[in-house]
Amino acid sequence: MPRTIVATRYVTPLREGGSLPAIVEADDAGLYVVKFRGAGQGAKALIAEYIAAELARAAGLRVPELVLVELDPALGRNEPDSEIRELLKASAGLNLALDYLPGSVTFDPVAGPAPKVDVASSLVAFDAFITNVDRTPKNPNLLCWHRELWLIDHGASLYFHHAWEDWEERSQSRFAPIKDHVLLPWAGQLPQAQALLSAHFTRALMETTVAGIPEGWLKAAESPFPTVEAHRAAYVSWLCKRVEALPAFIEEAARARAQLV
């Protein structure tokens, strides 16, 4: 379960992000990149970010520390930008943040260095699992820090929860968008990556991860389920069914890679 911090100072917006995340200082004197529940996709983006980050870490992938952030809307009272002021006001309460990695740079597939084959394979398999459409050469959402790749920005993943119709059927998707993955050319160990995910992604892990989603986010995220408990159970079910679909979407990733190399 991530720890909870309190935002004490709004430092600067990160305007390259469509949801206007920001660097914020907290009561532990640390700096964090905050994703606000009052932004465009609302609580569902935070839920996707939360699930993806927790599962990535469980699979041994590198993700900056995930924390929950209590935000007082008064934090933006003196903010001259009306858009930011309204965003902070709409995000009162519990938000989500990742530890700020000072000196990190965005991964560039052209400039290199080339990623390790096992890391690239695990990342491709993981993004196919969470149906992440947002790890492309145009927008890799990968940081290079201390010569390692770190995953960020998973709010666009798990997109099935924006329309829950046929969600069980869609859990079996082969995920054709994997053909656009920025690391696909280096993903030469997909069978090994499949075995890794299969070993780590147990039902117990899914239940523990989903249990940690703040109740307020689930209540704020529109769904067809009558209770928060039923809402959580649906996420667990989708994730477990996704594990069952591993052979199909790994095969799709291998097929897409064969057309590149």
Question: Looking at the structure, what is the overall shape?
Answer: globular
Helix content range: 25-40%
Q: Provide the succession of SSEs.
A: EEEHEHEEHEEHHHHHH
Which sequence of strands runs across the widest sheet? Answer: 1-2-3-5-4
What separation lies between the terminal Cα atoms?
41 Å
Number of helices: 9
Provide the number of structural domains. Answer: 2
Runs in which pLDDT lies below 50 for 5 or more consecutive residues are none
Largest sheet: 5 strands, mixed, barrel
Protein name: HipA-like kinase domain-containing protein
Domain HipA-like kinase: 13-223
InterPro entries: HipA_2 (IPR046748)
Provide the fold topology.
Elements: E1 4-13, E2 22-26, E3 31-35, H1 42-58, E4 66-71, H2 82-90, E5 93-99, E6 105-106, H3 117-129, E7 142-145, E8 148-151, H4 167-170, H5 190-200, H6 203-211, H7 215-220, H8 228-244, H9 246-258
Parallel strand pairs: 1-4
Antiparallel strand pairs: 1-2, 2-3, 3-5, 4-5, 6-7, 7-8
Helix pairs in contact: 1-6, 3-5, 3-9, 5-9, 6-8
